[in-house]
Design a protein that fits this description.
The structure holds 2 protein chains of 2 kinds. Chain A is α/β, with parallel strands linked by helices. Helix content of chain A is 40%, strand content 19%. The two termini of chain A are 54 Å apart. By secondary structure, chain B is mainly alpha-helical. Chain B contains 4 helices and no strands. Chain B is globular and about 30 Å long. The chains are: A alpha/beta, B mainly alpha. Chains A and B meet through helix 1 and helix 9 of A and helix 1 and helix 2 of B.
Chain lengths: 595, 82
């Protein structure tokens, strides 16, 4: 929902959160999450606004709020209410107002290190007890700086300075979080500086309602927590779709030519575009996938990307759509190529009409509210928090490497003389086997998750699948596929019914990663072999259409099956049969290793 | 700004914060008492007060916020500050 993406109107969110919640609560496929909010000050508005932000990314939270101000009592000791609640997340909302051992000026020689140690220990007690008692993630605020400094500038260096104390304590929190996989810091030290300490903390609101964050800034606090949760539960965005002209450089490449577009160090505007490219390059190096949707000829687009001063290069992009068809269509193709859902895409375009079109046709795509001023761009992208990572894993960095390998494969595809030669050049081999119980987990997963290459879309629990494997009335065949670029693992499964004179293909699924590799031919050859060995006359096939399996609507026709009449009560299904004696081997591209 | 303008903008805030679904059937008069609205709890009160403060750009005093009993009290206080 647009009004929940920064820059947002925080007061409007506070005012209308109930209406917003009603609009979001009835979506399909929400993930349930239990969150305990431990209180160092008033938390009601945090709960209310965090709820709508989470709903907006597909998470339905159930909250339990701790008693006012009792975060230590609630968390450092046995707590039956909390253990019954079984939280997935504990958020500890504390602020500088909750410090107990902060130095007091003129106290008899207070010892900074002792006080720091005692303050830190209070929190460490909590974290330790929580980790031992509940299986959950802890999100802990660090500390905002105080609105007043009795020592002025000296407050940041003097042993009795509160600013000094807080800065040191925050470093200890960071070090602890860095070593502990279940503790994550909600950086209100940064947030409050960003919004300004005098806005973040209001004396009026503190006395009036014990809010340690002024109401207007609570949505920013909640959004920050939401971004941590998004990162932890795989809801961070994965790919950027970028426009080119007046987005990645100033000017129009088709009109101005490579030498005239603004990128580099020759003017303030060029420099601003270069910095935006640098920011995106940095995201890319952390695993964010990049793609382009631009109304340009491909030649012009590449000309612009090959600008000698530019930071982003052609090879950084997994997909470049430079053409004149509408951007919604291009973006859909991009999400298909990247094999991710639209809600993991973020679209950046300076042109409001294009943004509007994408918002209308692809409501799941995250469209950032760009302005016409390049100096705003990094800020808008940064504040969205869309690419927040809870940790930087090797997988993220590898993701781009894998896609580059895929791309290499694709460019191979273009260079190959004809498709068959291309398939041969992939040097594919496959092991096709009957399962009598092995690989149950992966086989069940394929049966239950595959939508596109799935002839009948029958779903079965893994214990049912195990029964199929053990039964002599059924046969379960599975195959892996390797090629010169690597292993693809188990990618296709067939479950067949053994009848008196025929074999019926009951389930046939294949992972979309290996479409168009002729794997289906190799699988079918293998089935025919089995049919011959067991002296059957026919193989029977059924296609049951769904919204998602058009890809295989003509599979049986293409394998040489003949359509037969469907049973009266199954008129939506297409039934096929083929005589064994008519069948010749089909696979010419994959070397099958028999065991 | 007349007190009827203030009443109108106050009504909009109250409708949002109290999440009134039947907007046409919702009445808010100068004489309405805060206690007349069961949804107007302390949480809603602080939200309404903060919304007013940011629209008009001032802060109520701590005592005032405690003493508001009716719509009239709130409007009078706004008028004295703008």
């Amino acid at each position: 929902m647009n009004k929940l993406i920064p820059p947002f109107d925080s007061l409007e969110i506070l005012r209308k959160y109930k209406t917003i919640k009603r609009e979001l609560i009835n979506q399909d496929g929400l993930i349930d999450l239990k969150i305990f909010i431990a209180s160092g000050s008033t938390t009601d508005e945090i709960k209310n606004t965090l709820e709508v932000f989470l709903l907006n990314i597909g998470i339905r939270p159930k909250f339990l709020q701790g008693d006012y101000g009792l975060f230590y009592e609630d968390l450092a000791f046995k707590n039956k209410t909390l253990s019954d609640f079984k939280p997935d997340i504990i958020y500890i909302h504390t602020s500088f107002k909750n410090l107990q051992f902060s130095p007091k000026y003129s106290e008899e020689a207070s010892n900074l290190d002792d006080n720091l140690k005692r303050e830190f220990k209070r929190f460490e007690d909590i974290w330790t007890f929580v980790s031992q008692s509940y299986e959950c993630i802890i999100i802990q605020n660090n500390f905002d700086l105080p609105p007043h400094r009795t020592l002025g500038n000296l407050d940041s260096t003097h042993p009795e300075g509160l600013v000094n104390f807080i800065n040191r304590l925050n470093i200890r929190f960071s070090e602890y979080a860095n070593k502990n996989k279940t503790l994550f810091i909600n950086d209100i030290n940064y947030l409050s500086s960003f919004h300004g300490i005098e806005n973040w903390f209001s004396m009026t609101e503190w006395y009036r309602s014990r809010h340690s964050v002024s109401l207007k800034y609570i949505p920013y606090l909640s959004y920050s927590i939401c971004n941590i949760i998004a990162a932890l539960f795989g809801k961070s965005k994965k790919a950027l779709v970028l426009d080119l002209d007046n987005t990645l450089w100033g000017g129009v490449i088709g009109d101005d030519g490579q030498s005239k577009i603004k990128i580099g160090n020759d003017s303030p505007t060029s420099e601003a575009y270069l910095d935006f490219q640098k920011y995106i390059k940095e995201l890319h190096s952390r695993g964010v996938m990049l793609s382009i949707a631009s109304k340009n000829s491909l030649k012009n687009a590449l000309d612009g990307l090959n600008h000698p001063e530019g930071k982003l290069k052609e090879k950084d992009f997994i997909s470049i759509k430079a053409n004149w068809s509408n951007k919604a269509q291009n973006i859909e193709e991009i999400s298909t190529e990247l094999n991710i859902h639209n809600d993991a895409l973020v679209f950046i375009d300076d042109n409001p009409a294009e943004r509007d079109l994408v918002e209308q046709y692809l409501p799941d795509v995250n469209v950032l509210k760009m302005t016409s001023n390049i100096t705003d761009y990094i800020g808008i992208l940064d504040r969205s928090g869309f690419f927040e990572a809870a940790i930087i894993s090797k997988d993220d960095v590898n993701r781009n490497a894998t896609f580059e390998a895929n791309k290499q494969r694709e460019s191979f595809e273009k260079k190959a003389v004809n498709y068959h030669d291309y398939l041969i050049s992939l040097e594919m081999n496959s092991t096709i086997k009957k399962s009598t119980g092995e690989e149950l987990e992966r086989i069940s997963q394929l049966i239950n998750k595959t939508n596109q290459f799935n002839l009948t879309t029958y779903r079965h629990s893994s214990s049912e699948v195990l029964n199929f494997m053990k039964s002599d009335k059924k046969i379960v065949i599975y195959a892996d596929l390797n090629d010169r670029f690597g292993k693809n693992g188990i990618t296709s499964v067939m479950v067949c019914k053994i009848l008196e004179n025929e074999i019926e293909i009951y389930i046939w699924v294949m992972s979309c990663r290996i479409f168009k590799r002729e794997m289906e031919l190799a699988m079918f050859d293998e089935l025919v072999d089995i049919a011959k060995r067991t002296k059957k006359d026919n193989i029977k096939g059924v296609y049951i259409p769904t919204a998602k399996n058009k890809f295989v609507a003509d599979l049986y026709d293409s394998l040489g099956f003949k359509k037969i009449k469907s049973p009266k009560d199954k008129q939506n299904e297409s039934h096929y049969t083929i005589e064994i004696k008519d069948i010749k081997p089909l696979n010419r591209s994959i070397k099958v290793i028999n065991e | 700004m007349s007190s009827s303008d203030i009443e109108k903008s106050l009504k909009e805030i109250v409708i949002d914060v109290l999440d009134i679904e039947d907007i046409d059937g919702f009445n808010l008069y100068e004489d309405s008492k805060i206690d007349d609205f069961p949804e107007w709890d302390s949480l809603a009160h602080i939200n309404i007060i903060t919304q007013i403060e940011s629209i008009y750009g001032f802060r109520f005093s701590l005592d005032e916020v405690e003493s508001f009993n009716s719509i009239k009290d709130i409007i009078k206080s706004i008028c004295s500050k703008i």
